[in-house]
Design brief:
By secondary structure, the protein is mostly helical. It contains eight helices and two strands, in the order H-E-E-H-H-H-H-H-H-H. Helix content is 54%, strand content 4%. A hairpin with a 5-residue loop joins strand 1 and strand 2.
Length: 193
C-alpha cells in the first residue's frame, strides 16, 4: 500500500505524498483487544495477506471478518456504500449530483423486515455481527485516520446492518438509466419517408 504509492509518486518525479511522519497502516500482527468479542479469536494472514479466522462462535467469526475487511478496505467500503446510496457528491463534489439523484430515484428496497426474512433466519444476526466488527475498525480509524481518508478529505462513518442490503444493482441501474436518458434526449435524424 504505502510503499507502492511512494514508488509511483517517486517514479513521476515527485516526492512521496505523506500527511504524517509515520505509516498509517492498521495493526495486522500481534494481539489486539476488541470490545464486542465474547471469546478470543485467532487471525492468521497468509503470504498474500489474506486473513484466515478461527473463532469459537459465529458471532465472533463474523465480527472479526467485518473488522479485518475494514482494516484492509475501509476506504473502498465507504466509497461503495456512498455510491449505492447516492451520496458520492457529499465527498466528491458537484460532478456527482446527477448520478446520485438517479441512484436515489431507482433505488427502492421495499420493507426491510421482508428483505431480511428472504435471506434466512440468521442473516440479520450475522450482518449485525459483521457490522459491529466494521464499526470497531471505524472507531479506531476516526482516531487515527487512514492515509486515504486524509488525502480525500473526509472521515468514515459508522455502518448499520441495513447498509449491507444496498446493492450494486442500484449503481448499475443508475448508470444505465443515466445513459438511456442521455440517449433519448439526443437529437435524432429526420424520419422523413
Amino acid at each position: 500500500g504505502a510503499t507502492l504509492v511512494a514508488l509511483i509518486m517517486t517514479g513521476c518525479g515527485r516526492a512521496p505524498v505523506s500527511t504524517t511522519d509515520r505509516p498509517r497502516l492498521p495493526k495486522t500482527s500481534g494481539t489486539l483487544v476488541l470490545e464486542g468479542l465474547d471469546r478470543p479469536v485467532r487471525v492468521v494472514r497468509d503470504t498474500w495477506g489474506v486473513p484466515h479466522i478461527t473463532a469459537e462462535s459465529e458471532d465472533d467469526l463474523f465480527f472479526v471478518q467485518g473488522f479485518v475487511q475494514a482494516q484492509d478496505r475501509l476506504f473502498q467500503m465507504d466509497l461503495w456504500r456512498r455510491s449505492v446510496q447516492g451520496r458520492l457528491a457529499e465527498v466528491l463534489g458537484a460532478n456527482f449530483i446527477e448520478r446520485d439523484a438517479m441512484t436515489r430515484r431507482v433505488q427502492f428496497r421495499g420493507h426491510l423486515d421482508a428483505e431480511w426474512a428472504s435471506y434466512g433466519p440468521d442473516a440479520k444476526r450475522i450482518a449485525s455481527a459483521f457490522v459491529r466488527g466494521v464499526n470497531a475498525r471505524v472507531k479506531q480509524a476516526v482516531v487515527d485516520l487512514p492515509e486515504e481518508f486524509l488525502l480525500a478529505g473526509w472521515r468514515p462513518e459508522l455502518w448499520r446492518p441495513e447498509d449491507l442490503l444496498n446493492r450494486t444493482d442500484a449503481f448499475l441501474s443508475a448508470a444505465g438509466a443515466q445513459d438511456e436518458g442521455r440517449r433519448l434526449a439526443a437529437p435524432r435524424p429526420s424520419q422523413d419517408p
